[in-house]
Amino acid sequence: MRVLLVSMPFATVERPALGLSLLKARLADRDIACDVAYPNLAFAAMLSVEAYQRIATAIPHISLACEWVFSGCLPDAHGGSFVDEILRSKYRVPEADIELLLGARALAADFLASWLDAEDWSRYRVVGFASYCDQNVAALAAARLLKQRHPEILVVFGGPNWQGIMGRALHRCFPFVDVAFLGEADQALPDALARLAKAEDGNGLTGALDAGCLEHVPGIAYRHHGESKVTAAPQPVPDLDALPAPDYTDYFAALNGSRLGEVASTLEIETARGCWWAERRPCLFCGLTGCLRPYRTKTPARILEELRGLAGLWARPLDVADNMVSPEFLSDVLPKLAASPLPVPLFFESRATLTELEVRHIAAAGTTVQVGIESLVDHVLRLMNKGVRALENVRLLRWCRAHGVRVDWNLIFGVPGETDEDYDDLIELLPALHYLQPPATCGPISLDRFSPYHEEPARYGFSNPQPRAAYGYVYPLTEDDLRDVAYGFEYDSHPSLLRSVHMERIRREVRAWQTDDKPGDLRLARDVEGWSLVDTRFGSRLAAVRHLDTLDELLYSACDDICGRVRLHELAEAVCGPRAGLTDEVDRRLETFVSGRQMVTDGDRYLSLALPPVDEAAATS
For domain 2-46+114-240, which CATH number applies: 3.40.50.280, 3.40.630.30, 3.30.70.140, 3.30.70.990? Predict the structure, then answer.
């Protein structure tokens, strides 16, 4: 039995499919022949890489524009007024991008037909489609045509778009899909193939399905005499060390055989599944972990072996695909990478609770990082259940700048329960931070499936949740089915005029931050007269210099890490001795630092914003 696994548009051309590459290696361990096909590369070549990437990245993902490109290849899809009602009215997509999208849609049917014509389908008994992000409709359209031409081939689906209730509904609604994997397929797919091969009779694999041979494989939906049947809940892989490394050979073969030219490829590596923080105290907006429970991680030794193996084999940058690396990655893997860096760049995601030592290790390892900052306002962070405070987030951004670490982060607003005061505080803070890394994106909170917000919308203030309007244009399904298939949801939101003005101001402030080509600096300096603060953040031609006396220096250095007011009073008294008015003098000086935006405070705690002197910063970056 030979298997073909398929990565459809609009999967990025720069990355091979991690899930399919893992399954290929897994099937090889069971002596099951497997190939991985990349028609996404062929479609990118047909459109041009530039057009393909523009469609995939410039148009808002939540508009489902990439999915709409192939929706005309599914019968009875609505499609019609999508451009006016969704792209133009709702998301204000530029006309040039709409033209690219319309051009891609006009080519979709011919592309699918030409791809099916080019493959030798007699080689394969089973064809599996991955469905991640914007691949679902293209994969469904291809699977439908494949099943029409080759009904003897068993068509299977899996991936994040088919987790849990979404996969059950999709399998129910699209009868050309024989088997759907509703959770992790590492064990379920080889088990299912083995059972099918054993039960196969003169009626082929479809006959084996009708015989019920998959009823004891957990975590799947299968076709039984035309009816969708669902087995027991998916079983997570208990030991990630037992899984093989991904096999990326098919991707590079497809890339070399394509008309794309030079592509700067990045490879993914998986070190954990799920989210260790979500098991304790989930961020309320996050649905990324989906059905990936419980949290599991590879051992540090296995992670290092796999990182060095992939880096040596392919000589390409590596991205850790985890939603968030484990504490063991930070404590055991990262120091070893700092001591002996990989020969290629590495990227990973982390909670925003990194220590300064960990930031130093990231810098030494030549690594970039994305951190879950999300907000710089304490009240909003509490509303989202982030488990971190605003000063800690600012401190992390300052550490990253000081040690030369590129950090990606996002800024979220529109959280139910936030106040006008929250916006006032944020708008006042942002200009003082222009010398730090700006957020990559800035936008309203989303309501996504599997998140606590979605599971209990009324509890958290989300009124009348409905699938995003774009789903109705993309899928030929009823409202009830769309509710089961959708990952992203809209809800009734009627901010006051003042709140709307605040939201637009936040967007403008972030755009100004992102485009500020002369953000200036705030840095400590030392000369024969002592310490000074040199501030060039606000566009003045001459630096604003504040000389620090003994008490200033004491307070400012104490707040290099977050320090409470009571502790600052104690330090001042220990150095200056008890004297009348010292407490008021300390408070006055702290207020001067805060009003000059050289410190930030949450009321009883303070954080200095200045970077270390230039020579020290250079020595540690």
Answer: 3.40.50.280
